């Protein structure tokens, strides 16, 4: 199938190195300590953070740092076919783990000993790149919850189809079966915290694809930073003196 | 700020709200408040030669000071810290807090105070109901539930962190203790400013207002306090004899009926707090009283106080208030 | 990089699901006109001239692609909505359109109207997708008109009346294709226009001319829904229709659902299906299953079999032949092969065909539109009805024709003229036909491809010498042995006696991959061509000439880059060690086979090259013997060689290709090198090595060989390749040619060796039957075979010299490549055979000849002879009137008076002459010279 036509346009009209439109909103769950919605095109994810709070299961308590937990789920209505999405299936367990590890790497857990942080992410609409969107939403929610972090983790996917490196794959491109690289990135520290790839990719092509994904992460980071800054300023000036 | 999403506004209300909020923003930007705002991993500019003490919400990365949370940079002499806005409560010794009892454990109560752990209120750091200072006996331990039960709302003071990292409270004063006949409100702690006075007796309304530093706010029927001075003396002297009868009497009084007026006042005040917090305005005694007055003067019903119109009115009022106060300055 | 364009959601209804896709609209899509002041003109493709801009609609593209491909049509704006529709409807036309758009010399510009902010149209309620697309086309045309202002005339070409009417209403100038082409004033272009179905009236006029034929000839095809359900229920069977190369009225459909081939007899049962179409077939009731023997002769239009080259393998041979013999053996048992008829066509395989117009008298009032019948060169294709205004011009020409449709009412499909190749019988024309028929790309290399070549004159640079991966072997005495006049020398040898008594033998192959890098246009072109094609009088190169004849050719006395395989061998030809390296060599002599042979035979010569040659020959003989002991078959083919007049390029003489010891010697080392390389690359890349296998023939495939052999009293053991080789060795008949004949017959029973990717098959299937080698690949001719280029890259990667190119990661692509290589390889063979046939015909045109021939098969109406001297095969007809009786079971033919009889493999005298039964269709006719003397003897 032709994913990039000779004119350089993808199926949805983007060029190879363009991302979908993204949008974020903070504070969407009133009961949570921090929450956010993150949209990348038609992919829409909501994240809620609770904590740091008392550890529920005492046996999991760690005396010198916080426990980070994550639960990923997909809403029944998130895909074209309205199907009951089983909880705790392999895929969501895996993604939960991925998000947990990625977020744990940037949270300064040692500052919150004997406590636990719960991250709940739910996919409201799935159109490819849910993993990335989840991580971005979780980052925003954590920042909103005022949890100290080393840096903002941002994530973006990139793939390689029709001998072209494509940024931010949507569902059609994602399900083409080509290589698909999801990168989690700490923009200020310039470090990669997550790297997942399906299928095989030659080394130097991989390098290009990954660099593209990192560029995408940086773009997301700039956006997230703007959103957070705006939010912080607004809170501060609303609060008054 | 959460309210923005939830409260349905009509077009004119939206416009008015926007204008009011813009006004607020212009005021604060005049005051150069926002320059100090940082987000996660933003660098904080400091003069390293002077020597810097890293405070909360900061961390060193590659020899530079960066923020680890979103918030406002505050500098106190050499100490640089980031005051996080939206985050859980950070206890400091001496803070007056309101909390809810979660668990009754041997010799202690676990109290939820919006901190990363549950706080501990030891039986020993608690004035006994009889007011006598003495060793706690096994009988006292058995009767702990008669003092506080699960889900009771209590007021206490932060005693400090123990060496094992747990947070301890104390309630060795008559002003602390169980709270009832009122409402507990939870708001983000950054909206409560630490002040000398957190207990307010609002005579006009017959209401007690406790602004817990942890963002828990108590509004309840006024309780005539036992003479504070006397209590202090009792703690010092630790005399075994007590005036048990007094407290029993007051208990009996408390069982009594609360008048409709006072109940309405409580609700009005609670709604004032809700409006303030949903707008993200600082919650102080003055602000609350002002909102209550506003609602009375504009003839808003109690339940209308949570409606869109009042929401906008409060925002407009706050805008004018702040602009006038900034002009004065 | 963050685009902030507004986007519109596009919903597609498919089943119950609602799919929502984003659709970004952009403002950076340009109009492609170089004089545009608003747009970025760097990508502009349209011409500067004020010629009108053409906007074509989907149906124009679908129907008139041949017209669009004509260089007279230019400055075309192809809208993305049109591309999309074409892609959905016909992928091959889509590909043709795409290649037009990417062709730098054609001014076709793709305008992505669907993603342009101003030309995107939203679906309106109650609008069909077709109407919506038509509207989109009009909106885009309108946009062009407004955008370019008065600078140029924008013309919408559409044959849809409604669309045209609306366009004119909206103030867009629109025309039908026909009126536009007429306005161009080039009458020959009009022939290219496909008659739109709306002009049925005209067609009926034509049919009326022959009222007898005005009836339904074929049954209607079943609707697709019925076919799908029929396939599901097992009533219909799906498969690709393959028409018998030797009998166009017989076709086979290989069906997976019944695990056998379904035979389809006659045009009526074929029901308008073409060769290569994917069809749905319904089985006929068993009592209608026919034996095929009778059919071959009784069919009305059966053309006689031509004289042709003998098939070189089972793949080329006529399918029915072995079956005939198989069923005759089983006496009168009812035919067990299922027959069927086509009920529907799932996918058409229509493309353009080469051929000529059937001779017909010029109708009165010539110059007007004439309907003619086109006869394809490929006999599998039925005659095609075309419309032309230039009949007198076309009668003696080879032309290309494309098929448009085939109604139930018409006996023949209708098509349209595409272009003229040249005069019939002209050698260049016929050669081009051969190339077109076999899908051989023979256009000169494009400038992009040539740009990939290193500048000439080229010589080995100091960097090459300094390169640590490249070993300097210039000190070695390297020489090459090739056919005389060979310019693309891709292999050279050396052989040094070591002090230990062993020999160091090296095979040096031109290092083509040093110049052909993956992903370059040069590489793409080579991989598309797959192989060089050798015709009698010309060669169609896979790589451009500078590479094949100079830079890569291992000529004498120049330094060249090579990829070397070097063995240490004992004098018993046991390989002690093998090593592979890139190298620099300097060939000391480029010998021809004849020269090499002469040197070896001339005992007076003791120069170093000759000594090496003799040593190598000795080794080669041992290796050959070992190979034969392992069970390798010595197969034979009837290769012929033409002597071509240097001036006229006409063949002067034909003769069998003579194989010398020197040939065998070189061949032996090449085989050894290929096997060594195959081993190496498979070890390193067990999943993606490109190997070559030769499947073990099945018993059924060898059946005709055994039958023929037993007819002359010869028992062949076919249980293994070793057994077969031995029994072939024993098959020594009365004359020296007998053995070769048997071997030729054996060869044609086997299927061809094929390339494959090691990941596709399991290890036992890698076996090369003919060579009795567990592993084999092609490494030694990278100049003329792409497979070797591929293997060079694999070998280099296994040595750590290069990184493995990306394609090796992609299994599907690897399979595609190996399939393409097989296809190209086969086509190249077919093309060279066709070229030889063509030249044979030219040769005999003025030379009626009497010669000796061997009977290879007895048929009901005569026998088939093989002419060893000219390497051709053809039928000799013996009519019943001549008093001949055929005994097919005994494989004998005799005169009714028992005076003469012929058996298989017997020698006969025949007369060969070119006759022209129909004008412009010359053929070689073989007739028997009854020679009583011969038979008595």
Sum up the structure in keywords.
heterotrimer, A: 241 residues, alpha+beta, Ribosomal Protein S5, domain 2, five-stranded mixed sheet, globular, C: 937 residues, Rossmann fold, OB fold (Dihydrolipoamide Acetyltransferase, E2P), six-stranded mixed sheet, 32% helix
Report what the structure shows.
Chain A: Pfam families: RNase_PH (PF01138), RNase_PH_C (PF03725). The complex is a heterotrimer of chains A (about 240), B (about 325) and C (about 950). Chain A has a single domain, classed as Ribosomal Protein S5, domain 2 (2-Layer Sandwich), CATH 3.30.230. Chain A has 4 helices and 9 strands. Chain A has helices at about 90-105, 130-145, 170-175, 205-240, and strands at about 20-25, 35-40, 45-55, 65-75, 115-125, 155-160, 165, 180-185, 190-200. In chain A, strand 6 (about 155-160) and strand 7 form a beta hairpin. Chain B is α+β, with helices and mostly antiparallel strands. The longest helix of chain B has 21 residues, at about 310-330. Chain B is flat, with a radius of gyration of 23 Å. Chain C has 6 domains: about 25-185, 5'-nuclease (Rossmann fold), CATH 3.40.50.1010; about 200-215 and about 350-425, OB fold (Dihydrolipoamide Acetyltransferase, E2P) (Beta Barrel), CATH 2.40.50.700; about 235-345, Beta Barrel (OB fold (Dihydrolipoamide Acetyltransferase, E2P)); about 445-690 and about 760-830, no CATH class; about 695-750; about 850-935, Nucleic acid-binding proteins (OB fold (Dihydrolipoamide Acetyltransferase, E2P)). Chain C contains 27 helices and 37 strands. By secondary structure, chain C is of the alpha+beta class. In chain C, a hairpin with a 4-residue loop joins strand 22 (about 535) and strand 23 (about 540). In chain C, the strands form 10 sheets. In chain C, strands 18, 19, 20, 21, 24 and 25 form a 6-stranded mixed sheet that branches. A 5-stranded parallel sheet of chain C has the order 5-4-3-6-7, sandwiched between helices. A 5-stranded antiparallel sheet of chain C has the order 10-9-8-11-12. At the A-B interface, strand 3 and helix 4 of A face helix 2 and strand 1 of B.
